[in-house]
């Protein structure tokens, strides 16, 4: 089993690290256009294996896509990250041509792969990838709201002072500071609705923290995050490769679901070896329905720039 990761920067290399450490596949190809970067990261990672007890083969490549041939999954982490003070949407002009060229190169050698898109602005780049690939919509998955859901769980766990793994929560909508929708009704602690435990005011604070979770990290780090993103991609890749049929929110192309047409946006979907194997049209509150329509419209506006 082979996964190729295109873009060996902070997120791409962390995906390689976590995927290797979890032993999800036997081979990882780490490709970048920057001379030396993929080679250095792959060598460094390989030298960590004896101490940590894993032995995935990691092949570095500089822009030679033939080595990615017959990958089960292609992860696209190539492109610029934002700097403090920027929105993700401001990256659209610089990243659109990168994603287009990466997809066109990768698909020549792995026409049957499922593509996981990570580059921002996520929902627009997922649409760019869908169009550039010509693949059926189930094969193109944008990873953003898995990460947002994990951040929602983190801020809830901090507020409740309870272990994060006892908390379930989901974010849908766009992967943007103003477009994501943390769903109150689906947040639970040990199965108990969190709305029964937290005051409305405290819950709203958590929602605000979640929505700017990526911006907060960007301010602290001077560039955007990588551990949370790398872990979320790893969970998604594991779910695809091992055909887990798991329910997880991802950006997928909608054609009428939730009353929305022609955009990629985060919705709960069943993920397996074919990629998106179903979309679950959960019942939204009236206010979340409005937020979802606004989110889709905001994504459409950015899509208008490509
Ligand atoms: N969807 C998410 O949840 C999420 C999370 C974190 C980061 N991101 C996005 O992922 C992207 C990468 O972030 P990062 O922190 O790893 O950035 P980074 O700058 O550390 O790495 C990006 C890498 O892409 C490479 N690259 C650029 N053009 C390329 C091309 N044509 N072919 C191959 N490689 C190319 C660069 O050389 C660089 O090494 C950014 O757009 C960022 O906004 C998304
Ligand atoms: O915040 C960013 O720009 C990167 C990524 O989308 C994230 O949420 O960490």
From TrEMBL:
The keyword Protein biosynthesis does not apply. Residues 1-142 form the Lactate/malate dehydrogenase N-terminal domain. One of its GO terms (biological process) is tricarboxylic acid cycle. GO terms for molecular function: L-lactate dehydrogenase (NAD+) activity. The active site is at residue 175. Coiled coil: none annotated. Keywords: NAD, Oxidoreductase, Tricarboxylic acid cycle. Residues 145-301 form the Lactate/malate dehydrogenase C-terminal domain. Gene3D superfamilies: Lactate dehydrogenase/glycoside hydrolase, family 4, C-terminal, NAD(P)-binding Rossmann-like Domain. InterPro entries: L-lactate/malate_DH (IPR001557), Lactate/malate_DH_C (IPR022383), Lactate/malate_DH_N (IPR001236), Lactate_DH/Glyco_Ohase_4_C (IPR015955), Malate_DH_type3 (IPR011275), NAD(P)-bd_dom_sf (IPR036291). NAD(+) binds at residues 7-12, 32, 95, 118-120. Substrate binds at residues 82, 88, 120, 151. Belongs to the LDH/MDH superfamily. NCBIfam families: PRK06223.1. This is Malate dehydrogenase. It comes from Paenimyroides tangerinum.
